[in-house]
Specification:
single chain; alpha+beta; Heat Shock Protein 90; Actin, Chain A, domain 4; 6-stranded mixed β-sheet; 3-stranded antiparallel β-sheet
Length: 261
């Protein structure tokens, strides 16, 4: 949750959250085709992949691995992905990072990392069409002595037309946040029913891992995808749960332009 707050701060500082922009209400920005089809009309991407160990280190050495993307011709979005991944690092640190991009984070990491520390920073497009680009940002960090690494995910819903990130408030109808939360809770109930081996006794599981509201949403061709970090609504063994709220359940909640035509 601290990483999410840091990322929200970074977006606000960069002025990239499009709270004021809204497209015409009579034009759907979610085509009825599948994401595989609409991605052909989306922004072009190129991979960025590398793995580095601490310079001059021998034996057990800290490492950084990057498996990310850039958007040729769109430096604003490319920079945002780079900045946001850097901001998502910092386990247990509530302070704003002293670095603002991956290159600066790498230099910071070499100065502070223990021998077996490791960081993975990745980005991929989760959904694309001619109007919207959804980028999934993932970090995984292991610090020496931990039982296991810690992962975190944030979505960027990029408006290709206004060149800004769409927050949840930007895509909901006014006054519909509670209705959105209710639809998300129904999706959570469906997720529980679909995972009986994980859940076991329902009352015990829900008491230990209660439902949590979330603004970490992503557009898909099926509906809004909500992804949780480990330990938010389930034990570590469950990974990072993904819930889907179908578009039919969001009519009257989402603004018309964000529903399939």
């Amino acid at each position: 949750m601290q990483r999410a707050r840091k990322l929200a701060l970074a977006l606000a500082v960069c002025g990239l959250v499009g709270a004021c922009a809204s497209p015409p209400a009579n034009i759907s920005r979610i085509p009825v085709q599948t994401g595989q089809e609409t991605s052909k009309d989306g922004l072009f991407t190129q991979p960025v992949k590398w793995e580095h160990s601490k310079p001059g280190c021998k034996g057990d050495c800290p490492t950084i691995k990057v498996d990310s993307i850039v958007f040729p011709g769109n430096p604003k979005l490319s920079d945002l992905v780079d900045n946001a991944l850097a901001y998502m690092t910092g386990i247990g640190n509530s302070n704003v990072p002293t670095y603002s991009n991956i290159a600066e984070y790498e230099q910071y990491f070499w100065k502070t990392a223990a021998p077996r520390d490791s960081t993975l920073l990745s980005a991929r497009t989760r959904y694309r069409n001619s109007s919207l680009t959804v980028v999934e940002l993932d970090t995984w960090q292991y610090m020496t002595g931990m039982a296991h690494g810690i992962s975190a995910t944030q979505f960027l819903n990029w408006d290709n037309k206004t060149a800004k990130v769409l927050s949840l408030a930007d895509v909901l109808r006014p006054g519909q946040r509670q209705a959105y939360n209710a639809a998300l809770k129904e999706a959570h109930s469906r997720w529980l029913s679909a995972n009986p081996e994980l859940v076991g006794d329902l009352d015990t599981f829900v008491r230990q891992w209660p439902f949590q509201e979330s603004t970490n949403y992503a557009f898909t061709d099926r509906g809004l995808l909500i992804k949780y970090d480990s330990y938010q609504i389930a034990p570590y063994s469950a990974g990072q749960p993904e819930l889907v709220i179908p578009y039919d359940s969001l009519r009257g909640i989402l603004k018309p332009e964000f529903l399939p035509s």
